[in-house]
Write a structure and sequence with these properties.
Strand content: 5-15%
Strand order of the largest sheet: 1-2
CATH class of the largest domain: Mainly Alpha
Oligomer: single chain
Order of helices and strands: HHHEEEEH
CATH architecture of the largest domain: Orthogonal Bundle
Number of helices: 4
Number of domains: 2
Shape: elongated
CATH topology of the largest domain: Arc Repressor Mutant, subunit A
Number of strands: 4
Radius of gyration: 28 Å
Distance between the termini: 83 Å
Helix content: 25-40%
C-alpha cells in the first residue's frame, strides 16, 4: 500500500468533432405566432377536448401545449375559437388558504364543508348539486 507513485504522469488528449448519425433525423425548431398559439390553446378549451390529441395533430409535443395553456390561464385572458363569442375567456384566480372550512363553487351553488365531513359524503353532496 505504500507503493510509491511516479511523479511523471502522462495523458492523452482526445479531440472529437460532433457528427450527426445518419439514422438520427435533424431537429427543426418551429416558431409559433401568437395567433397560432391562441387558436390551438382555444381548441383545447372546448368541452371534451383531448389536449394531447390536439397537440399531436398540430405537430406539438403535448407538454408544450400544456405549458402554453398554463401561461394563457396565468395571464388571465385566453383567445377564444373563431366560432365562439368575440370576448376573451377570463379565468378566476384562487388563493389557497389554510382553514377548517372549505368552499366549493359549482355554478351558482356554493358548498361549504368542515374538516369533519367524510370524503364520501362530500362527494355525494357535490354529485347532487351538479345534477341540479
Amino acid at each position: 500500500m505504500s507503493e510509491r507513485m511516479s511523479d511523471s504522469r502522462s495523458f492523452e488528449v482526445l479531440t472529437a468533432s460532433p457528427v450527426r448519425l445518419s439514422s438520427s433525423p435533424a431537429r427543426s425548431y418551429r416558431s409559433w405566432s401568437n395567433e397560432e398559439k391562441a387558436r390551438i390553446v382555444g381548441a383545447t378549451l372546448v368541452a371534451g377536448a383531448n389536449v394531447s390529441a390536439i397537440a399531436r395533430s398540430n405537430g406539438l409535443d403535448p407538454s408544450q401545449l400544456f405549458a402554453w395553456r398554463r401561461k394563457a390561464k396565468a395571464s388571465g385572458v385566453v383567445a377564444p375559437l373563431a366560432a365562439a363569442p368575440s370576448k376573451p375567456v377570463k379565468f378566476a384566480r384562487f388563493d389557497a388558504m389554510r382553514s377548517d372550512m372549505v368552499e366549493i363553487v359549482i355554478g351558482d351553488a356554493v358548498v361549504r364543508a368542515g374538516a369533519d365531513v367524510e370524503p364520501d359524503r362530500l362527494a355525494d353532496v357535490i354529485r347532487a348539486v351538479r345534477k341540479t
